[in-house]
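Practice set, problem 2.
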Amino acid sequence: HLRYVHELAPELPLGLLRDTLDADPVAVAEDLHLASYNPSDRALSSRPGIIGDLHAAGVAVNVWTVDTPARWKALDALGVDGIITNRPTELGGWSSGRVS
């Protein structure tokens, strides 16, 4: 579906949600013309180094579903671009109160 969307509207940013990491997320991102690769927190925890690889390829990393401040802090330190949560108000407060 993402390939078809890209053919129809190549200007649209595309993101892929993944419960498990692909063997080569960068290759998948390049093949599908992704703006973001969005793994589950559990999947990303198995290979956090992939964040740097995806960033080097110009692909954002948004992780889901993360609901604890301790994990938000850890993911922020790893350099993720976004966090998907069931607690958006709390994440917003945490985010605005952190020291960059």
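Problem 2, part (b): a different protein.
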Amino acid sequence: MNEYARPVFSGVRGVVRSHDMGDQPTWDSGERFHPVGAVAQALIEHVDREYDVVIDAPVALPPTHARGLGHDVSRIVRISSGRSGEVTVWLAFGAAPGVISVFAGLFSQFDMWFCGCDMCDETWQGVADALEEVFLLLARGGVAESLEPGRSGRARWSLTSSSMDWSGVMPLKGVRRLQQRHWGEQLSQLADGRWSGWTPRLQSRDHVEEDHASEHQGTPSL
């Protein structure tokens, strides 16, 4: 399997501060975060090449994920394998540059939030780092989800082998009992409630045979 490599960008504007505004932050157009969208697209193309997945776009978010969406959306991409137990992931591209949310499984959500005001030292590289880590961890190892039923029940999710604490909690208040029961049935079929990552894509037999033949092309007979 080939490793993911971030695209190379040039001419991207850094943080620009307005020193005559005192303590009042001003808001730029977000142009400096534009590369994040290209990084997201590069990740999609990477898993499409390296994993046995299907890319669907445009699609709608499932109702549970849509309820947790906190920004306007320009495009939603779904990555799935069709294999039982393997995670399904949605990338929601925001209308503003660099705004990305990642949804996975039944209720897992990972937001790549950033302030965007010109008083902050946030960079597009920091947002891209977070996006790449979450997305590639999902691709390789999936996500663990669990339910804590009851009057004050909660849904939990987490990634492992991460340099950050990528986990979250969602109150079950407002989620119908039928839906909770359906989630519980699905999670009970998974080992420790974990959706696995995707199966690596194998080279086709024809491609392997072509490579083998090319290695011997032009070899003189004895």
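Answer key, part (b): Helices lie at 35-50, 63-67, 124-141, 177-188, 205-216. The two ends are 36 Å apart (CA to CA).
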